[in-house]
């Protein structure tokens, strides 16, 4: 089956919720205030697209291609990025709500998270090497066997991670954030 192609198209206030959007390809498209809630995006490719104020909560991302996309002010709760295609996966998040989402085993080097809510996000086995978490809330985010080498967490907050269960060589932390590295020891720091 051939994919339905959209190139340099602008979608504004479009409701895709609860729809089947399988086997589509969107290249250099803009999505503004669009609703993708519970949308089936299986095998759809988004290439060099920009999303502003969109809602992707609980969308099906099985084998979805996110290739060099920027998400700004989007709600993306419960999204399974781990099921998305690994081929050319590249995303940037600005002021997004990604709570309860998963990046399980996702290769996402140099990813930028700017002022995002990442509460209870699963980063288990993910490769976040050289990624930046600027002013991000990582409350109860899960880091297990995660590659955090050269990651910048200096302005991130509410994170806890076990340095012995993750790769953290040359990662950057603030002095206040170091407390999140000691949580497993159940010690009191004053």
What does the model show?
The protein is mainly β and 190 residues long. The protein is 0% helix and 21% strand. The protein is built from no helices and ten strands. The protein is elongated, with a radius of gyration of 17 Å. The model has no long low-confidence stretch (mean pLDDT 93).
Distance between the termini: 62 Å
How many H/I helical runs?
0
Write the element-wise H/E pattern from the N-terminal end onward.
Answer: EEEEEEEEEE
Gyration radius, rounded: 17 Å
Helical content, roughly? under 10%
Mean pLDDT: 93
Q: What low-confidence regions span 5 or more consecutive residues with pLDDT below 50? A: none
Largest sheet: 10 strands, parallel
- Inertia-based shape: elongated
Structural class: mainly beta
Beta-strand percent range: 15-25%
Number of strands: 10
Q: Brief overview, please?
A:
This protein is an all-beta fold and 190 residues long.
Chart the SSEs and their pairings.
Elements: E1 4-7, E2 10-12, E3 24-27, E4 30-32, E5 45-47, E6 50-52, E7 65-72, E8 90-94, E9 112-114, E10 132-134
């Amino acid at each position: 089956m051939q994919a339905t192609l959209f190139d340099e198209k602008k979608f504004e206030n479009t409701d895709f919720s609860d729809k089947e959007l399988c086997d589509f390809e969107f290249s250099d498209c803009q999505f503004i205030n669009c609703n993708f809630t519970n949308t089936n995006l299986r095998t759809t490719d988004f290439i060099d697209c920009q999303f502003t104020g969109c809602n992707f909560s609980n969308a099906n991302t099985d084998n979805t291609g996110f290739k060099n996309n920027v998400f700004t002010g989007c709600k993306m709760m419960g999204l399974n990025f781990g099921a998305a295609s690994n081929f050319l996966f590249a995303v940037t998040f600005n002021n997004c709500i990604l709570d309860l989402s998963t990046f399980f085993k996702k290769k996402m080097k140099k990813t930028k998270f700017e002022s995002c809510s990442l509460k209870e996000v699963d980063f288990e086995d993910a490769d976040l090497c050289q990624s930046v978490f600027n002013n991000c809330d990582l409350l109860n985010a899960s880091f297990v066997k995660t590659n955090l080498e050269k990651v910048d967490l200096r302005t991130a907050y509410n994170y806890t991670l076990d340095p012995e269960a993750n790769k953290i060589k040359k990662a950057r932390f603030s002095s206040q954030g170091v407390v999140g590295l000691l949580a497993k020891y159940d010690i009191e720091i004053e």
